[in-house]
Specification:
- With about 230 residues, the chain is α/β, with parallel strands linked by helices.
- It folds into 2 domains: about 5-70 and about 160-230, Ribosomal protein L1/L10, rRNA-binding domain (Ribulose 1,5 Bisphosphate Carboxylase/Oxygenase), CATH 3.30.190.20; about 75-160, Rossmann fold.
- About 35% of the residues lie in helices and about 20% in strands.
- It is built from 9 helices and 9 strands.
- α2 crosses α8 (about 180-200) and α3 (about 80-90) runs parallel beside α7.
- GO terms for molecular function: rRNA binding; structural constituent of ribosome; tRNA binding.
- This is Large ribosomal subunit protein uL1.
- Pfam families: Ribosomal_L1.
Length: about 230
């Protein structure tokens, strides 16, 4: 316990009075204080001025991070025949139809992204209550309901990140690993923020981007200047 207390104390001191930093300053601070024995994820949380309970204030989208996420993404594809073969050839981890539906209904969800061809949606639709809350439901708006299965699998494996505002108006995602170069992390962060900015809904009123926070998986969070995060 002594080692843990010492680490926590050091982190508190390092982050004391730190707020509204530039993206570069925040990344440097977080990397310097990421002491877990694994390669922690750099996470972003954005507090938006929206109420997702209203359809015209929902924020949802997808972005391909320029430097990837550093995470091995497991992809499941609902498809039959040639499209199933295409998915397998593209590197999908799980491919199926009714059998995949039954696996998910049993509570076994061993994937991070779910893709479906349009003809599979009557089957996938039965899983809405399971996949929806986990943000895994295929959706044509983010390119996961498509006939171009190969492109969708490639995108998922190549660093594409989906985002969706939670009921409190918060968008959260992983934008890289602590081991990434600081410049690459900063580039990923600004790409993500830019995608969220472009997804501003028509019903949003007042300030859209209220606060931006960065943290590592096991580390403390720090607020980031919205102006710095939105610099192109």
């Amino acid at each position: 316990m002594a080692k843990i207390a010492k680490r926590v104390k050091a982190a508190r001191e390092a982050f004391a009075d730190k707020a509204n930093l530039s993206v570069e300053e925040a990344v440097s601070l977080i990397k310097a204080n990421a002491t877990a024995k694994f390669d922690e994820t750099i996470e972003i949380a954005m507090n938006l001025g929206v109420d997702p309970r209203h359809a015209d204030q929902m924020v949802r989208g997808v972005v391909s991070l320029p430097n990837g996420t550093g995470k091995a993404v497991r992809v499941a594809v609902f498809a039959r025949g040639p499209k199933a073969d295409e998915a397998t050839a593209a590197g999908a981890d799980i491919v199926g139809a009714e059998d995949l539906m039954e696996t998910i209904q049993s509570g076994k969800i061993e994937f991070d992204r779910c893709i479906a061809t349009p003809d599979m949606m009557p089957i996938v639709g039965r899983l809405g209550k399971i996949l929806g809350p986990r943000n895994l439901m295929p959706n044509p708006k983010v390119g996961t309901v498509t006939m171009d299965v190969k492109a969708a699998v490639d995108a998922a494996k190549g660093g594409q990140v989906q985002f969706k505002a939670e009921k409190a108006g918060v968008v959260h995602a992983g934008v890289g690993k602590v081991s990434f170069d600081e410049a690459k992390l900063a580039e990923n962060i600004r790409a993500f923020v830019d995608a969220v900015a472009k997804a501003k809904p028509t019903g949003a009123k007042g300030a859209y981007m209220k606060q931006v926070f960065l943290s590592s998986t096991m580390g403390r969070g720090v607020s980031v200047s919205v102006d710095s995060a939105t610099q192109g």
